[in-house]
Amino acid sequence: MLKEIHMPKLSPKSDDYFFGEWIKKPGESVKQGDVLFEVETDKVISQVESEEDGILKEQKVATGDTTKVGDLVATIEVSDH
Amino acid sequence: MIYIPVTSTDVYHNFALEYYLMSEKRFREPVFLLWSTTPTVMLGKYQDATTELNLANVKRYGVHVARRYSGGGTIYTDQGGCQFTLIYPDEHTEIDFSVGLRLIKTALNQIGIQAANDSRNDLVVAGRKVSGSAQYVTPGYKLHHGSLLFDSNLATMAAVLKVDPVKLKAKRIASVHQRTINLKEQQPNWSAQEFKDYLRQAVVSLQQAETYQLTPADEARILGISSQRFANPDFIYGKRSRLAHTGKRYFQGGGLARISYSLDNQRLTAVHLSGDFFSNLDTGRFEQALVGTKYDRSAVLKIIDAQLAITPIMGISANQLTGLIFD
Asked: What is the ipTM of this complex?
């Protein structure tokens, strides 16, 4: 089953975040708690963790993109079990 | 709280110390550091050195260039000022500067400096900035660090940092110099070292902090991290740099195209073309053809037109690509 990963809300002040970089590559396995990507807002670099176990399928954003809270950033293939 | 004395004025060592404490040592209580550097400019994690710095003056004045793991803008520091670092376990991912700012503000107030917060998470005295902060948040830990200007060389600061003239005009601020103030104006009889000592004593006593001395094993690991990461020119100047401007558009029948670029002295200094358009275009050659071109619509259009004449992009014209840089 494909799960969508959306940009979480990190800042009380802003919903526009600068997308930093991917830590995981498409095809790599990810576990809950693994850092997926870094994002910058309000002078803070935040590492964002996966909440799923699975395989990172597709990255929907790239370094330098402006992303909004709730934007689709990636898909993860998770086991149906 | 744990206080760790820092005697090194090497910025790469001290960034490595922060990284080591946060990612490897991982104390279960907050750690406080107060440190200084030789003249240094510190870039934010995703900033571009050529966009932010006057590199000729950086070289002329012998200023070190370093890149932080935290966000935010470029700052200048020297031994006339100091850096504070607070590293603490925190499971919350929401951004919060209040813990660190409250600590430093209270300590400053206690030594007679009337600092206040502003809306950008800076500390100000009489409306002028004396301290800026940034953070790096990893699962389970927050690093909050900031700089304090006491008797820093503001002329060198103005010479090595570039300021966007459009931004300054919009904010009606004449120069970097005018926005910042040295705390020595508040305490003219103190040296920078005395200021640092008083601030350290205030924080240690407010928090009843215990001192931890770095061991030879700690120092060996810190030196390794310093040379692998923070002193590595690829990290400082390299691929991670953020291009200053990005134009992006979806073209019906052509797809998404994105051009990121940096400017210096009204010329393109770096260009990156990406997207999901259909073409056999050699993007590296396209980008190189544009680097050095005057930031002028007709000059850029001429180059892009010539590049697309060699290899077109389906459904996207040279005029449309040029628009990503100028519109």
From this structure: 0.90
